[in-house]
Amino acid sequence: MLIRTMRAWIALFLVFCLPVLGWAQRINSDALFAEARQAARAGDRQRARALCQQILDAKPAYHEVRVYLGRLYAWDKQYDAAWEQLSRVLSERPDYKEALSALTDVALWSGRYADGLRVVDQALRYYPNEDEFLIKKARLLIKLGNPKEAARQLIYVLERNPSHPEALKWLHSVRSSARLNKFSLYYVADVFDRGTRAYGPWHLVSAELSRRLPFGSVFLRTNYAHRKFGTTPKEGFQFEMDAYPKIARGIYFYLNGGYSSSSVFPDTRLGGEFYLSVGHGFEASAGLRYLNFGSSDVTIYTGTIGKYYKSFWFSVRPFVTPKNAGTSFSMQFLIRWYFGNADSYVTLSSGAGSTPVEVDTQAELQRLNSQKLGLNWQHLYRGGTIVKLGASYEYEEFRPNEFGKRYTFTVSLQQRF
Q1: CATH level 3 topology of 183-416
Q2: Structurally, what CATH architecture does the domain formed by 27-128 represent?
Q3: Which residues are CB-neighbours of 121 under 8 A, at least 6 positions away?
Q4: 12, 214, 217, 328: which could form a disulfide with 354 (CB 3.0–4.6 Å)?
């Protein structure tokens, strides 16, 4: 009888107390999760990950926490760890929407585009009309070199929501990138202030045709210059060709060749530069420029160290020119902010030193020192039209103890077709 009574009391305890204990555990896990999110917002993602792991040790099936842990890893570029956490959620819940979304983001960020396409196709089996997944599929298809199918996905979104801003943005980008040819017109004016010395102005007009080919882009350009050196005007033409051959992913060259029979340009110009993406948004390059003016020539060594961060590009470029009188040196600093796409940006540049960034005449090589500040704006419009405006100010020492100011204005109109 006593044993039977004790069993009854134990059963009663289990019926009434275990749900309370489970509720208390849930409250504790939710409190820890809130603390983890707060730590992440404060920038302490390491503590946020530790708190998430503490929750998951006690409740491995708390999928919301595991998805958040996966995103924490992804935000710190620990993509393999993020993939592992999110894949575990999907192995238990293949239709878990947040995990599907997060894993697609990881695929886009880490370059696992083919894997990402499989994930987004899985998402669309459960959510066939979800704009988020349709747009992410389009982005993955763009990365995989299938712009036509990407456009089809985006058009499907816009048929139901014609003003969807992200779909419009990516469709505009796809259609622009599908135009392989581009015709460009450039005008550059240099105005000089050298006190009582008459000098300038300089005018440069360029017409350029380019095409994207499977191995890289090729540019053909004709330049016409009308420049006054003192009171003596000179004019002439120059013909140039640029190429950007791709060797492998993240590795490419810049090649340049030019010829002119006019003294206003170098007789011959050659250039080459090797570019390498070194990971984590960094890019480095090294190269040279060679110019022959008939009676003299010069070689300029250059390179870059650059970093992509969110919508910004930061770079430093040195210029080193060996001369008989010694080696001259310059530095150029650049900050570029991209808005909307790769062809729309604002660039702030500055430089200082004795080697000019752009060399078209022997007079520019004779400068002793300069400081420069410039601002450029470029925007891609619908229909493949690109407009660029720029201005810069330069304070230069053109002869020993003789200083002047130089104002440069640039206008460019480009059309893709």
Answers
A1: Porin (2.40.160)
A2: Alpha Horseshoe (1.25)
A3: 137
A4: 328
